[in-house]
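Risk mitigation, structural track. In case the binding assays with magnesium ion fail to produce interpretable data, a predicted complex structure has been prepared as a fallback.
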Amino acid sequence: MSIVSFRDVSKTFGSHPVLRNVSLDIEEGQVVAIIGPSGAGKSTLLRCVNQLERHSTGEILIDGTPIGGNQRKRDLIRLRQTVGMVFQSFNLWPHLSALGNVMEGPVTVLKTPVAIARQQAEALLKQVGLADHAAKYPGQLSGGQQQRVAIARALAMKPRVMLFDEATSALDPEMVQEVLRVMESLAADGMTMLVVTHEMGFARKVADRVVLMANGQVVEEDAPETFFTNPKEERSRAFLSRVL
Ligand code: ADP
Ligand code: MG
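Fallback model:
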């Protein structure tokens, strides 16, 4: 069963086509890495999944249910709950502690009782290696620590799918690995993940499938070993020769 399906999805900004006839299926428990040059439409593709952007034509199905169209606000809230997202910029609430950031969604949106939300948030912070930093504010945490709080915050909503949009691109090199390790352990726990990344090592090691996008289109979709050792498309070879 696919958790996320794109069926012939296109998106234009004004007259500028950004996604062109994208079809993709993400199965439960799969990690799909989306790679490709800047401007390829990778972020737009992810943003359409939780409807931060609306696709123009085609269908996006989450758990078999089409999204977009004349969606009611309630359905949008449920969608955003089903789909967790982690951005390049961590976007934590600066006035809340790490614990407060992770508790906020469950308490305000899910109406989880505070005591329970706190327990769950503590467990999540432990899971991302930040048990000892729960009381700190974002300004007191390193970039890598903030991004791990952002991951815990997304997980607190108990999403069925996690989207990562260049989650490590804004980090100093020494902090990239600590975030990738958290992502890798989530994948090992069976989380369904759609990961836009420039970390080719991560894509190769952790992803079940690699999707190369360029000019709003899927150029190639393969198992990582095939993609990195024997890509089918000239466009893929050209991309790999620049990034590897
Ligand atoms: P990527 O994440 O692969 O770098 P994006 O999805 O961010 O690509 O962008 C794809 C194209 O869409 C780019 O040409 C970008 O300028 C354009 N684009 C993205 N967001 C908007 C927007 N809100 N309005 C107009 N154009 C946009
Ligand atoms: Mg992007």
